[in-house]
Task: structure prediction
Amino acid sequence: MFSGIVEEAIQVVGLKHEDTNLHITMKCPFCDELKIDQSISHNGVCLTVVSLPGNGTYTVTAIKETLDRSNLGDLKIGDLVNIERSMKMDGRLDGHIVQGHVDTTAICIKVENLDGSWKYTFKYDIPIEMARKGYMTVEKGSVAVNGVSLTVCDSEKESFAVNIIPYTHDHTNFCDIKEGTKVNLEFDIIGKYLARLNDFK
Result:
């Protein structure tokens, strides 16, 4: 379980394909604090540390299901990835409840510089039956974009926008997002449960 508060945006330094899996190695400033079997959110995807090769790097493995559902299969050497270690149960929930289970991807269709902040608009495609189950955004609700907990604005049937402050822009991979960039989305788990409960009425 995560909060959507990104700790670092770190660089991909190695990619290795094995059958349908992708092993991703990253350079991390707090690698000496990590251990094998630890869960870390990568662009909002919960992955397990499988090795610690040294030189301040660690490796995770993404399987075909993960690659099909997220943007991790598009990673290149040098790309920035948002990471967050799992939430401590005795800490404050500064973002919202994020499971690390990406629901779908979206495409950035507009970036606006607002002289002190940025507004990003994303378009996604969700079948209506999935939207009825809570796979959607609502105005002023929460959404995780590449693992970043954000507040939704301009919520439409197939699009929404978020406003980004300078700190978030500079300390996550939002600094690299432009029109045409694919991002990972995780819709609010509370909304999904409420929608599911409505099915039993």
Q: What stands out?
A: The chain has four helices and twelve strands. The longest strand covers residues 8-18.
